[in-house]
Amino acid sequence: MTDSMKALRYHGAKDLRVESVPIPELLPGQVKVKPEWCGICGTDLHEYITGPILTPAVDKPHRLTGCTVPLIMGHEFAGEIVELGPGVEPGRLKVGMKVCIEPALFDDTCPPCLDRRRNCCDRGGFFGLSGWGGGFSEYTCLQEKLVHPLPDNVPTDIGALVEPLAVAWHALKAAGHTPDRSALIVGAGPIGLAVLFCLLARGCRQILISEVSPQRIKHALEIASSHPEVDIRVLDPTKEDVVVRAKELCSQGNQGPNVVYDCAGVQKSIDAAIGAVRKGGVGKTLQYSPIPK
Ligand SMILES: [Zn+2]
């Protein structure tokens, strides 16, 4: 093995380069992973179009990693363990095991971290956005606790989707979504469809989806057709008033859905979600777009 590898590095807006960089040193408590599949998140796209946004600019080193651009991108990935670092005993993790990644970076010392809310870390960042490596590289090293084994029947192309799926699952948990509650998903991109899969897994029986893109409407309808036992309706806001229809379709006197999930992150989707949700219902925002649409 040579001491250099290829990696996709972000230098700034519309400036991505495949470069030769040193293979990262495997530190105590870390695991070295060879990424096999890595997704492109909407956040990555925003960085590419108008960044640096979350990525630390040259004059603003990240508060935890101390890194700045250029840095390796990619936080939705899965791959194979190639080496265990000093102090990592073979057991839960072994060389050759297929794994997915939890890309959260945190300091484990601030009040939110000590309160076991490391996703709210005061100095938190993201692997693949804040430095210390990313999935678009031949090798990457992560803390042992951020590496999770995949079951034998889950290949790494599916494993790369665990991170966006976890975003959706967290939203359902935070909303306290029980099967008897109706839902409106605004935006049927990857995160919206991840919410749909989680609602189906939870046994929800009435799900409305609002989407404008014909391609995304097609994906949502395909999923709906394979679940005929669930009342799934796809609404197109260019053809009908989603707020009015959502109120009508979720019965009990035009009350609207119990829970709304904004998965588009633009003003129109936020307005639709807030307009449709029933009184005393719950709204969750899973997306934020810094780019006006
Ligand atoms: Zn912290």
In short:
The protein has 293 residues and is of the alpha/beta class.
Describe this structure as you would to a colleague:
This protein has a five-stranded antiparallel beta sheet. It has a five-stranded parallel beta sheet with strand order 13-12-11-14-15, with helices on both faces. The protein has 293 residues and is of the alpha/beta class. It has eight helices and 15 strands. It starts with a strand and ends in an 8-residue tail after the last strand. Helix 4 (162-175) packs across helix 5 and helix 7 (242-249) runs parallel beside helix 8 (267-276). The mean pLDDT is 95. It has two domains: 4-160, Alpha-Beta Complex (Quinone Oxidoreductase, Chain A, domain 1); 164-285, Rossmann fold (3-Layer(aba) Sandwich). Bound molecules: zinc ion.
Q: What's the overall average pLDDT, rounded?
A: 95
Number of strands: 15
Q: Could you give the order of strands across the largest sheet?
A: 9-3-5-6-10
How far the N terminus sits from the C terminus, by CA atoms, comes to: 47 Å
Quaternary organisation: single chain
CATH class of the largest domain: Alpha Beta
Shape: globular
Identify the bound ligands.
zinc ion
Largest sheet, strands/sense/barrel: 5 strands, antiparallel
Identify low-pLDDT runs.
none
> What is the fold-level CATH name, i.e. the topology of the largest domain?
Quinone Oxidoreductase, Chain A, domain 1
* Rg from Cα: 21 Å
Number of helices: 8
Task: Quickly give the CATH architecture of the largest domain.
Answer: Alpha-Beta Complex
Q: Write down the secondary-structure element order.
A: EEEHEEEEHEEEHHEHEHEHEHE
Q: CATH superfamily of the largest domain, called what?
A: Medium-chain alcohol dehydrogenases, catalytic domain
